[in-house]
Amino acid sequence: MAVIYDETIIYTGVERLYARANTRIATYTLLGVGIGLSIGYVMAGLLGEVAEGRMPYEALCILLFAGIGFSIGRERAFVLRLRAQTALCQLKIEENTRAASVVSTS
Questions:
Q1: Where do the DSSP E strands lie in 1-106?
Q2: Per residue in 70-104, is it b (16+ CB within 10 Å) or e — as a string?
Q3: Mean pLDDT across the chain
Q4: Considering just the CA atoms, what is the radius of gyration of the chain in Å?
Q5: Tens digit of each residue's pLDDT (9 = 90 or more) over 36-56
Q6: Residues 6+ apart with CB under 8 A from 31
Q7: What is the pTM of this model?
Q8: What is the CB-side half-sphere exposure of residue 26 using CA atoms within 13 A?
């Protein structure tokens, strides 16, 4: 079975990597918000705060963990974008090499 080179597969893969990178940031940020809300709620409960006094602890934990989640998500998204750019670079190398080989054989 002969395998035929198809550059559209690489372009599709690159688009998927970029889509995953964009959702990775949002996912980790929302995960950080959820963890921060949970930890803030538990921390306020352990400190014996009444319902009105919980808000500063929860807000602080939400901001802290959302920031951590955003940072982790951004780094993981960068790795995915780097893989996409590497694939595009290899595709361009192949295109340029193919064009050069056609010119040199003519």
A1: none
A2: bebbeebbeebbeebeeeeeeeeeeeeeeeeeeee
A3: 88
A4: 24
A5: 999 988 888 887 766 666 678
A6: 69
A7: 0.76
A8: 5
The pLDDT of residue 103 is above 90? no
pLDDT of amino acid 89? 95
Mean pLDDT along residues 8-15: 94
CA distances from 17 to 2, 25, 43, 71, 95 (A): 27, 13, 38, 19, 21
CB-count burial class (<10 Å; 0-12, 13-18, 19+) for 33: middle
Phi and psi (nearest 5°) for 67?
A: -65, -40
Q: For residue 81, which of 20, 11, 28 has the smallest C-alpha distance?
A: 20
Q: How far apart are CA 85 and CA 88, in angstroms?
A: 5
Dist. CA 85–CA 87, nearest whole Å: 5
Structure tokens at 98: 């193919």
Q: How many CB atoms lie within 10 A of CB 62?
A: 19
